[in-house]
Amino acid sequence: MVIKVTNSSKRKQDIAICETSTISETEERIMENFPVDLEDFFSTYPEICERNLEFTATPNKPLKRDGVLFITQRRQATSDIRENPKVQILGSHAAMTCHIVVMRHTESYVASIGHFDNFSCWQFGDESSAHKEGLKVMMEEIEFLSKGDLEEGHIQVSVFGGYTDERGEAAKNSMALLSALHESDRLLEMVHFCVGPYNTCKDKQGKNTAILIGIAMDLRSQIIFPASFPWNNFEDFSTQLQDRVLRRTGQGKILDDDDKNKTKLSTFKPKALRNPKTYKNLENSVSDKEKLHKLKVDEENKTEFTTDSFGNKKFGNLKSFTESKSFQQSMSKEFQEISLKEKTRTLTKMELKPVKNRVA
Fold first, then answer.
1. Distance between CA 166 and CA 292 in Å, rounded?
2. pLDDT attached to residue 266
């Protein structure tokens, strides 16, 4: 894997805005050693720190719903303005301990966005992380849509979110994402890594909070900017959940199909970022339950019925409560002795003869 840090993106941005740049030559550095922590990373790559400060100094831009492909937590989407002009902006928000990753190809302009939470990044270990799988999907979709332009350019990566929280959960998420990028087999250029101290400020109570509300990327201009989504509030989110439940239970719908219509022309539809281990268990849970039930039924059918002391059939391996181990262990010593005597006691056998010459 090669992660490189260059000043080319800064130079292109200066030229696009001011038509000139103070950067005359393009410099490039390769990340050879993986950093110990965020402080080590930022001290090694001050050019990324400068770009982080420039980004957070930009005010949030409120966006309308039209033309915006908005993704929620644990979701990912890839789009190409050439194949689907209805999607003009990719966006996501509320990345507190979560992180928003934006990737773009420098020649094809195909872009992908993912919202990675901190719940599934390390709970099953690094080898089964949803981060690795999610980033891999993003890169594969970009490469597929880039087609002939693939070899002419490379993928740029920007990461946003993860303020400095008290428990350090966001920092774990940041390092997990950086590790997943570092272990990839692609050539990647890191443009922003706006996390930790570069996305932290104080609220009115003096507690740490995130600077960035949301992130968006304009697919035409290829500019990534801080954004807000006024329409995506709690009421809107609640309505989306109600609509999803109604659709899944076959009771109709309360929302139109705007998002589906937006991505109708897209090769890749927005999808959930799943931890491979968790998803595999969920995927097989139904079939596993059916198999276990069938085995249980077959086992019961094979078992021969026994009878108790009264001649009644005992179904399968069911035992009365007094025969269970828990009951036997709960009995006092005296009661156990009495019970043992009762079991060993037998009635005297008597041979009864029929009565003869019985007078009615």
1. 45
2. 87
Q: Helix crossing, 46-56 with 8-18: angle to 10°? A: 40
Could you count the other beta carbons within 10 Å of the beta carbon of residue 268? 21
Contact 202, 209 (CB under 8 A): yes
pLDDT tens readout for residues 107-117 = 999 999 999 98
Residue 311 region, left (φ>0) first, then alpha (ψ -120 to 50), else beta?
left
Q: What are phi and psi of 200, to 5 degrees?
A: -130, 135
Q: Are 58 and 226 in contact (CB under 8 A)?
A: yes
138, 103 Cβ separation under 8 angstroms: yes
The DSSP-derived string for 284-337 is HHHHHHHHHHHHHHHHHHHSPPEE-TTSPEEPTT---GGGSHHHHHHS-HHHHH
Q: What's the CA dihedral at 193, 53, 4, 273 to 10 degrees? A: 20
Distance between CA atoms of residues 306 and 241, nearest Å: 53
pTM above 0.85, yes or no: no
Dihedrals phi, psi of 84, to nearest 5 degrees: -140, 85
Residue 160 bridge partners (DSSP): 100, 194
Q: What CA–CA distance (Å, rounded) separates 18 from 304?
A: 88
**Three-class DSSP category at 339:** helix
d(CA 333, CA 347): 25
Nearest residue to 174 via CA among 164, 166, 184, 187:
164
What local confidence, expressed as pLDDT, does residue 282 receive? 45
- Torsion from C-alpha of 11, 15, 20, 24, nearest 10 degrees: 20
Predicted confidence (pLDDT) per residue in 299-318, tens digit: 655 555 566 655 565 655 55
Tokens 């019925």 — which residue? 305
Residue found under tokens 């006024």: 230
The pLDDT score that the predictor gives to residue 291 is 66
Q: Alpha-carbon distance 162 to 209, whole Å?
A: 10
Backbone angles phi, psi at 299, to 5 degrees: -65, -40
Please give the biggest Cα pair distance in the chain.
134
- Position 244 scores a pLDDT of 74
Q: Which of the 8 DSSP states describes residue 222?
A: -
C-alpha distances in Å from residue 247, one per residue of 242, 255, 261, 304? 9, 10, 16, 48
